Amino acid sequence: MQTIKTGIVVALLLAVCYGAFVALNAPEPQLPAELEEWANDGQLDRLMDIEIPTQSGSGGLNTSLSPASNVSFPSVSLPTMSPVAALPEATLPDLPTYDLPRTPGGTVSPPTALVGTTTKSVDYAAMGPAIKLPPSLGSADSGGSTSLVLDAVTKTNPTKSASLAGEYPAIPLVAATEKVLAAPAGNATAAQPPLPPFSVAREQALKQANDGDLKGALVALTAYYNSPELPHSEYTDLLEILDALAREVIYSRRHLVATAYVATAGETIASVASKHHITPELLSSINQLQTANVLIQDQQIKVLDGPFRGEVDLARGELTVFLRDMYAGRFPISVGADPAPRSGHFEVADKLRDRSYYGTGNKVIAADDPKNPYGGYWIDLGHDMCLHGSAEMVTTDLKTAGCISLAPIDAADVYSMLIQGSQIDIRN
Asked: N or C: which end of the chain has fewer CB within 10 A?
């Protein structure tokens, strides 16, 4: 047994000795030609000089590499980023929200409390057309139904009965009170009997409307428009009813003011409009006529017997338009100082589209300039007074330019309603 163990050990020693002999006498392996050339250039030595990062004593990886001095790395310069400037916070003008039915131009002006309050000026340029709502000129025929009107006028809003002192902006009062033109003698009327309470008149008017007499209801309630006795809750209710009735009576295609007009051979939109003292633009808009001026013989159209007249209330910042004894809409205004409007009785002397502005100090602004304070519509009232649109681009030096300005869409509507000779009263 001992002899077998000794033989195994001797065999293992011989195998180890033979392996060592082969390893020591084996030829040196040859590198491929490409690697041998690369190694002879010293690249291998430089590669071997790179230090491998070691772990720090805290257990984390030490990421601070120390490249060998003979290894060069290109320097990269990153662009310097400028900090982004904070955007200015957008500011919107404080505008009240209205839910009243719309009349011409779809604009509603804020009713001012009928009691003495401290007012502040309004920056109309900032207001612009921001409170515009869909226009109603040329609205579709409602098919003879009064339900749309009654639905709008019988729903009052009791939450708006609080005093409005200081709530709405108002135009600064103008000191001048010169009476420019004497009112026509025919306008003088005898003392009228006192009006019944508004609550009674309201119920009677709604009954008239229910019975189909919308025009009679509009005439009856128009008498209360400038009544100083109305509290604000009743005044707001009155405006809602007037807006709804005027939109239906005057600006729809229904023949509620007069019977349908039957065109004769050769008549045009312009000739019929001139005969009834309204503008061709308004006649076309109400009847939804195309741009063609010629009417077809026996064609039935709606006509209105004008002219329209206007009342400008500088304290309330509002232009109200009437068709004879009927309320026909209202528009917010802004007043300028070149020239400043003054109270008095005026009439439309001329109308122009795209008129150049001629201001103080020989300042002239071309008609197509976006800074033109007239904004494309100019209605001359004589005696340096005028109604006009507003500039597309307001600049500091022209902030108070102009006389009595309207928002662009309102100016277009008023321009289409007033004719040469229309009466305009301006009061403080």
From this structure: N
Banded pLDDT at 143 (limits 50, 70, 90) = very low
Residue range 383-412: average pLDDT? 93
CA distances (Å), origin 235, targets 82, 209, 320, 327, 380: 58, 19, 15, 14, 32
The answer to whether the beta carbons of residues 195 and 227 sit under 8 Å apart is yes
212-to-150, 255, 327 alpha-carbon distances in Å: 11, 12, 18
If you write DSSP's letter for every residue of 109-173 in order, what string do you get?
PPPPPSS--------HHHHTTTT-----TTPPP-TT--HHHHHHHS---GGG-S--TTTS--PPP
First-to-final CA distance of the chain: 139
Q: What are phi and psi of 347, to 5 degrees?
A: -145, 155
Whether pLDDT at 361 is above 90: no
The confidence score (pLDDT) of residue 363 equals 87
Locate 365 and state its tokens: 């602004």
Q: Is the peptide bond before 172 cis (omega within 30 degrees of 0)?
A: no
Please tell me what DSSP assigns to residue 187.
Answer: G
d(CA 217, CA 242): 9
CB 249 within 8 A of CB 222: no
Which pTM value belongs to this model?
0.60
CA 81 and chain centroid, separation: 38
Distance CA 250, CA 327 (A): 9
pLDDT of residue 8: 82
Query: Of all helices (H) and strands (E), which one includes residue 274?
Result: helix 269-275
Beta bridge partners of 350: 380
Separation CA 343–CA 341 (nearest Å): 7
Q: Which of 283 and 8 is assigned the larger pLDDT? A: 283
Question: Which long-range CB contacts under 8 A does 359-362 form with residues at least 24 apart?
Answer: 359/398, 359/401
The distance of Cα 327 from the centroid of its chain, to the nearest Å, equals 26
| pLDDT tens digits, one per residue of 185-226 | 444 455 667 889 999 999 999 999 999 999 999 999 999 999
